[in-house]
């Protein structure tokens, strides 16, 4: 039986289409300490191709070139993961996440181009869009699709987000994605920000949700209600911390709402079953710590190292998170967990 | 057969000569007999061009060199640029000539103007939207402080007959209150302030100033890696990449070829009355989708034209100059159709 689902609703054809991008093999890498193997990537991509997932994102959790002692050493090189994915993807596009600094043009983007990457998602912290100019220009001039991605978007006001997004648009980004990296948003937060971006940009706007407060699907739907046309979703929510918007649920909800994704529902359900069985150590749940991570507005990727370090120092990881949130930490500042845990430990000793 | 040994510098000279012949051939088309007659007042005079290594500057200098070499105009040109080395890369035939004196200076720090100055073209300022987004302070400062500096110096120039102040087509129609500041606003508002300064110096210091507002150009001496539609299409066509259209393709522009731009700008300066404000751009309005098809048609290859349908509809995105006065009053009209301009540009950048 086919998993194709007919459309309902009365929106115009262009309005009904939502582009789904699947970062399971990138954001999910956070959840397995960047230990995804080329075989797993290949097997997943074969099924994603069958499900007609438009874009599949692959790589270290922090993107190209990020494998390191500090951020976590990947089990496989970028080259091996991209080659495995490229070999399996025919009509689905291959995407990568790029954080300038972790990735460099010579060392990482050029090889990625040679490896057949189609979509270059160039990301920066939400107030640092300036860093992305050369990377967006490179991808665009190579004839590839360049996205601008603003991470930790809850840390900037909606107005600042618009200014930073406009910079990425000026650099030539073809789509602008904001990430709720900490899973901090409620639907009204998303409506306000995405609505403002849609009103002030001439390029499509996308949203990348995290599920710390159980709002990933609702937030994704809120985003398209105010004009977003692109959403990220991960199989079983496979991603950092509490996980992302659950891909197969997202597709089902969108279809029920009358949006078109081009994705085969049965095949994407099969894809999620496969991912759970063959790729994931555990299916993401909203752990108590994840709730705290979402509330404190700290990147979900801090969850594993913070939990480990809190245990080492015998302090409450929830206190660690709220202190990290107070300090406004961002990805790449995982060293500060140690400092915070040590401080809390000393305070406890001398209290 | 033994080939004569050619040194690198000789090769570069030969290449420069080749470039010059191509540019002169373009100028020969744009500068008709009647245009030459109307520019007669330029003969034997001194002219200073700021922003001399930019697109407009390079074409104005090329035209003046052409007028001197081919038509014996005998103008003495002072070319002011922050980085004259850029001119050596863009238009090497403009360097090392006895009738063009290059002066490396930031226009904000210009100390004196030449004694024999009769004409002044103030074209300094970077029109690249990427630069505006990354460096809005520098963008605004160069335009505002640079224009103020040039006009202050012009007050001391006794023989000055006319200043051509290069503004921007964006100044027209960008009015209204309560607009949010964005990356292009620093440029547009500074250009608007530049026009206000021109009014002030015309009114109070009686400086003879004509303003020209550039719209969209095409041709040699541009950075075709910049994310503007025409440049994008040329770059993609040369690199055999898909031509990507941002938005629904209905945005309307009118492109003016470089040598036509130089002819029309010089006519506006020489024939315009102080206080005149002219537009400077093409007369053949077309949608960017039509331009993409035009470019694709000229490379004699099947090129994929992709419309970014998910982008917000551009609606009334029309950036088209009013060239009627310049054409009717001064009798100068573009010699290059858009199709000709695309062909010449492809030929230039393809080398």
Characterization of this structure:
The complex is a heterodimer of chains A (351) and B (351). Chain A has two domains: 13-278, Aldolase class I (TIM Barrel); 288-350, Helicase, Ruva Protein, domain 3. With 351 residues, chain A is α/β, with parallel strands linked by helices. In chain A, helix 8 (187-200) runs parallel beside helix 9 and helix 12 packs parallel to helix 14 (317-327). The longest helix of chain A is centred in the C-terminal third of the chain and has 16 residues, at 335-350. Chain A has an eight-stranded parallel beta barrel with strand order 1-2-3-4-5-6-7-8, surrounded by seven helices. The radius of gyration of chain A is 19 Å and the shape is globular. Chain A is built from 15 helices and eight strands. In chain A, strand 3 (93-98), helix 5 and strand 4 form a beta-alpha-beta unit. With 351 residues, chain B is of the alpha/beta class. Chain B has one domain (10-222, 257-283, 318-336): Rossmann fold (3-Layer(aba) Sandwich), CATH 3.40.50. Chain B has helices at residues 8-30, 33-38, 55-71, 84-90, 129-134, 136-154, 185-204, 229-238, 258-271, 288-298, 324-330, 338-350; strands at 46-50, 76-81, 100-104, 117-122, 162-166, 209-214, 216-218, 243-245, 252-253, 255-257, 277-280, 286-287, 305-307, 318-319. In chain B, the strands form four sheets. A seven-stranded parallel beta sheet of chain B has the order 3-2-1-4-5-6-11, sandwiched between helices. Chain B has a three-stranded mixed beta sheet with strand order 12-9-14. Chain B has a two-stranded parallel sheet with strand order 7-10. In chain B, helix 8 packs parallel to helix 10, helix 8 packs across helix 12 and helix 10 (288-298) packs across helix 12. Chain B is globular, with a radius of gyration of 20 Å. In chain B, 48% of the residues are buried. The chains are: A alpha/beta (351), B alpha/beta (351). Chain A binds chain B through residues 14, 17, 19, 129-130, 133, 137, 140-143, 159, 162-163, 166-167, 170-172, 174-175, 198, 200-204, 227, 229-230, and chain B through 129-130, 132-134, 180-184, 225, 227, 232, 235-236, 239, 241-242, 244, 246-247, 308-312, 314.
């Amino acid at each position: 039986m086919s998993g194709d689902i007919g459309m309902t609703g009365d929106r115009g054809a262009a309005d009904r289409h939502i582009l789904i991008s699947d970062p399971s093999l990138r954001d999910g890498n956070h959840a397995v300490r960047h230990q995804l193997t080329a075989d797993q990537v290949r097997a997943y991509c074969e099924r994603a191709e069958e499900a007609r997932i438009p874009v599949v994102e692959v790589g270290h959790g922090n993107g190209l070139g990020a494998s390191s002692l500090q951020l976590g050493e990947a089990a496989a090189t970028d080259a091996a993961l991209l080659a495995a994915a490229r070999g399996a993807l025919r009509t689905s596009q291959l995407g990568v996440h790029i954080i300038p600094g972790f990735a460099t043009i010579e060392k990482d983007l050029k090889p990625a181009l040679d490896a057949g990457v189609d979509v270059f998602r160039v990301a920066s912290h939400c107030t640092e869009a300036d860093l992305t100019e050369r990377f967006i220009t490179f991808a665009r001039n190579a004839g590839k699709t360049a996205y601008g991605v603003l991470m930790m978007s809850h840390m900037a006001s909606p107005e600042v987000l618009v200014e930073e997004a406009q910079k990425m648009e000026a650099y030539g980004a073809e789509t602008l994605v904001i990430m709720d990296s900490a899973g901090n948003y409620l639907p009204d937060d998303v409506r306000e920000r995405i609505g403002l971006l849609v009103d002030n940009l001439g390029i499509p706007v996308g949203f990348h949700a995290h599920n710390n407060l159980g709002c990933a699907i609702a937030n994704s739907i809120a985003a398209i209600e105010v004009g977003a046309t692109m959403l990220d979703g991960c199989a079983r929510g496979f991603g950092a911390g509490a996980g992302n918007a659950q891909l197969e649920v997202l597709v089902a909800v969108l279809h029920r709402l009358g949006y078109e994704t081009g994705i085969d529902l049965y095949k994407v359900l099969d894809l999620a079953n496969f991912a759970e069985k063959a790729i994931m150590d555990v299916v993401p749940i909203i752990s108590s710590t994840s709730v705290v991570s979402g509330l404190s507005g700290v990147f979900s990727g801090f969850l594993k190292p913070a939990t480990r370090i809190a245990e080492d120092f015998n302090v409450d990881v929830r206190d660690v998170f709220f202190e990290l949130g107070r300090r406004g930490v961002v990805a790449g500042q995982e060293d500060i967990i140690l400092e915070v845990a040590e401080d809390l430990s000393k305070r406890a000793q001398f209290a | 057969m033994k080939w004569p040994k050619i040194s690198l510098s000789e090769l570069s000279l030969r290449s420069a000569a080749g470039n010059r012949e191509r540019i002169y051939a373009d100028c020969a088309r744009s500068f008709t007999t009647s245009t030459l007659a109307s520019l007669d007042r330029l003969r034997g005079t001194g002219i200073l061009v700021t922003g001399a290594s930019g697109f407009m500057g390079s074409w104005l200098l090329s035209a003046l060199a052409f007028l001197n070499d081919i038509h014996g105009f005998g103008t003495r040109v002072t070319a002011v640029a922050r980085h004259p080395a850029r001119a050596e890369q863009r238009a090497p035939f403009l360097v090392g000539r006895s009738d063009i004196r290059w002066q490396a200076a930031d226009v904000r720090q210009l100390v004196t103007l030449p004694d024999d100055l009769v004409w002044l073209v103030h074209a300094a300022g970077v029109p690249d939207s990427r630069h505006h987004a990354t460096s809005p302070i520098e963008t605004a400062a160069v335009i505002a402080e640079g224009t103020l500096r040039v006009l202050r110096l012009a007050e001391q120039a006794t023989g000055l007959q006319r200043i051509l102040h290069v503004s921007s087509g964006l100044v027209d129609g960008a009015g209204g209150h309560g607009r949010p500041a964005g990356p292009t606003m620093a440029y547009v508002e500074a250009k608007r302030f530049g026009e206000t300064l021109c009014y002030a110096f015309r009114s109070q210091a009686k400086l003879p100033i004509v303003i020209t507002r550039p719209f969209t150009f095409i041709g040699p001496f541009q950075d075709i890696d910049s994310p503007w539609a025409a440049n994008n299409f040329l770059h993609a066509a040369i690199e055999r990449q898909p031509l990507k259209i941002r938005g629904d393709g209905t945005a309307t522009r009118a492109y003016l070829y470089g040598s036509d731009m130089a002819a029309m700008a010089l006519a506006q300066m020489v024939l315009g009355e102080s206080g005149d404000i002219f537009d400077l751009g093409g007369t053949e309005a077309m949608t960017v989708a039509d331009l993409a098809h035009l470019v694709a048609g000229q490379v004699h290859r099947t090129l994929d034209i992709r419309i970014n349908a998910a982008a917000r509809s551009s609606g009334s995105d029309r950036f088209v100059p009013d060239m009627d006065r310049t054409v009717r009053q001064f009798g100068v009209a573009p010699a290059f159709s858009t199709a000709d301009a695309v062909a010449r540009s492809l030929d230039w950048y393809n080398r």
